[in-house]
Amino acid sequence: MLWELIATICAGLAGAGIALFIRKLSLKKAPKWLVPALAGIGMLSFQIQSEYTWYEHQASLLPEGVVVVKTVEEEAPWRPWSMVYPQTTRFIAADINNAAQNDLNHDVYLVDLYFFERRLSAKRVTQVIHCGAAARANFTNKLEVPKGNQVDNREWVSMPSNDPLLTAVCDGRAS
């Protein structure tokens, strides 16, 4: 975040420098307000560019086998450009390569999910995915792994069959 602040200030200084150059070329006939206006436009432009390229940059840094399973696009009135082109501010990635198959029920996998949000540290949450029952549960010491495809609805949450997490884990790990 510190580097982003420094880069924003540099973008403002570059905008102001362009305005000063324009004033010099015009023999100071260009208005004085052009300097802070171009500085502000430079900083705002950098921030917009940074917000819209954040997701692609972060996703490109994920190691092989870590798959994005959900993105969240947001619009905000204080960012009017997001009303036209919503920006991705959060996403969830699953570590498919390191998903561990349960020894008692081969339809059950233990997988780490990583939650990414702009300007925040990533968070890791371990989930249990039951491919046969199309369900997921939080990993706890008290979680009982069913022997078949019947799950306890108090511990397990049903997932639609086309859920990207379910598809990534079950199709990616099928043997």
Detailed description of the structure:
The radius of gyration is 24 Å and the shape is rod-shaped. The longest helix has 27 residues, at 34-60. It contains 4 helices and 7 strands; from the N terminus they run ααβαββββββα. The model has no long low-confidence stretch (mean pLDDT 91). Strands 1, 2, 3, 4, 5, 6 and 7 form a 7-stranded antiparallel sheet that branches. By secondary structure, the protein is α+β, with helices and mostly antiparallel strands. Helix 1 runs antiparallel to helix 2 (34-60). It starts with a helix and ends with a helix. It has helices at 2-25, 34-60, 81-84, 164-173, and strands at 66-74, 87-95, 100-101, 108-117, 123-130, 135-138, 157-158.
Summarize the structure.
Helix content is 37%, strand content 25%.
Computed CA radius of gyration, to the nearest angstrom: 24 Å
Q: Rough shape?
A: rod-shaped
Largest sheet: 7 strands, antiparallel
How many helices? The count is 4
How many extended strands? 7
What integer is the average pLDDT?
91
Cα separation of the termini: 43 Å
Structural class: alpha+beta
Q: Into which percent range does the helicity of residues fall?
A: 25-40%
Poorly predicted runs of 5 or more residues = none
Beta-strand residue percentage: 25-35%
Report the order of strands and helices: HHEHEEEEEEH
